[in-house]
Amino acid sequence: MHRYVALSWRPGHIAATQEELRLRSSIEQSTPAWDIALSSDTLMIYSRQAVESAMRTYVLKDGNGVVFGRLFRTGSPDRPVDPSELNTRILSQDEGKGLLAKYWGSYVAIVRIPEKRTVLVMRDCSGRIPCYYVNIAGVYVLFSDIRDIAAFAPRFTLNTSYLAAYILRYPLHVRETGLREVS
Asked: CB within 8 A of 14, min separation 6: which ones?
């Protein structure tokens, strides 16, 4: 499985900046090592590629984001997208509709929009690639596998109502998880 961890925070927010430095240190000291897919003043994205994975890491040519997964141009199911054609303007157009209109596939896109001072996170409708998030002291941590943040995250508590519903009616298509702090 292709795994990722992303950190997003507001610049100038002292507590969040301090927490981001702590989280970044924890990630960068963990083993096996993480690759830095993107580094900016408000967004850090790490990835760990599985050896036999068909998933790709597409770094936007303008350096404002990353797409994890497999992308195809609409109408061309047999030809994967060339990463050089991906940029923030196309992917963030109309809150992500540009991505939906021009591409299909299995993906998670994390795109920094500097002029709006925001980060746009988009996932294909199949949800095949996990994308969870938690807010740790003002830093949004997005991740694909809970094991990757367990060492530095706060203690999580069980979401018993979700777990009961999950046991009775699997699968659930909601924003909740079995941990209260993780969505």
From this structure: none
